[in-house]
Amino acid sequence: MFNRNRGLQKVAAVLSISLVAGCGIFSDGDQNGGGPIVVGTTSAPSTLDPAASWDQSWELFRNIYQTLLNYPVGATTPQPDAAESCRFTESNTVYTCKLRADLTFSNGHKLDAQAVKYSFDRIKKINVSTGPAGLLTGLDRVQAVGDREVVFHLDKPDATFPFVLATPGMSIVDPAEYSQTALRKDARVVGSGPYDLQSYQQGKQAVLVANKRYKGFAKRRNDAVTIRYYQDSRLLADDLRKKKIEVIFRGLGAADILSFQNQASGDIDLIDGSSNEIEYLVFNPKDPWARKTPVRRAVAQVINRSELVHQVYKDTVQPLYSMVPAGLTGHTSVFFDDFGDPSVSKARKILADAGITQKVPLTLWYTTDRYGSATAKEFQEIKSQLEASGLFTVTLHGAPWNTYVTGYQKGEYPVFGRGWSPDYPDPDNFIAPFVGNQNAVGTPYSTPKITDELLPRSRREADRSRVVKDFQEAQTILANDVRLLPLWQGKQYLAVSDDISGAERSVDPSTIMMVWELFRKTSW
Question: Considering only Cβ atoms within 10 Å of each terminal Cβ, which end of the chain, N or C, has fewer?
């Protein structure tokens, strides 16, 4: 549920919109008035190549590349985009898509079934360890039939496969422009999405202009959008106040959220809504201390989530006690069930029973620029809580995202923080990406009960209400191991200049911004 601050109408469902506000009316079609709409965010891409990314790079990809399926406004299940239609043809093991007619890439090259097959084969062949290949482990082969039919053969039933196809990781690329064996390293993009990437400065900005060749469901309501990337949440909010930017998508600090909420008047609207975004700690099994289950369980017993979200985030996020967030099918507060309230005495006993009597040295890493400026304060609070117990000594390190990604992919960090925005709104996507030999956090996690039994069984069920027990059991296994420690579940906040409309419609079920929904109001 979204609501707009300053007394605008509460909407009845995620991504719905009020059609009239104040004394203005909304423009329609490709109208952009005073130049590109400028969006600010702390969520900069780590790469421009879809085969390399299973992270926040998808937020840019959604707008410049195209996928077979996508989420039109209001949809919670994937609908055709580059595809004209898609369907299972054999008991959830064969999935067939028919492409729209006369699709082309932004450079005029033909987008046909062979290009789609090439794009999927390329992801699997390049096989980046923390890239989207991890979403395709159940894909046996892709078949191109003529120019417009693509057939996906799965090695086992998987009712979630349409959700996978809708992720930006499955973006379609031009075979003439993208090597099948190597990642693209330059700052150019050839896609078929609603926008062309006119220019890109890593860590600074992406300039998007309308792709006039685009054919899909999206109806652009502007001609151009510039996305500016920030490392400091305070500068991000200040630039909105100074009208250097017009929309903040991700990265608002708690103090600025409260400031925008409490303003009695002004020209900035705050839109808030529920979110499935989570933040968690990852314990690296290569580290001599983090690999010990009693150490991980002791950390879980000490961490005070309520204090963390209050002191650092001013209650703009909420404590989370499972990797599956509240509001999704099968959610259970299993970490609270197992550990209860924070207790130093219980943590001390966990360590003592394992023969650990010395202070445990832990090194924690966090990214300095991905999730906003509050991340440093968050990890300082975690350090303070752990050290106040008398059971741990903690060393903190921070690194910018591009460096940080490389570090955790190489297994260099003993304990590190990650955030997760869902690829698709299903509990599967809060379990499967983190287990197995190839996963989204780059630390192999062998858990056969989950990977070989619970996930395959749940994926045979098209009715997702029937998978509750399987996912509750998976969450129990994760809590027992504590290889992953959930910390908090976020809320979605957008801060918007009051002359910009469409923001309520612009966030899809995976909390990715569809910038084509933004437009300027015109006066009476």
Answer: C
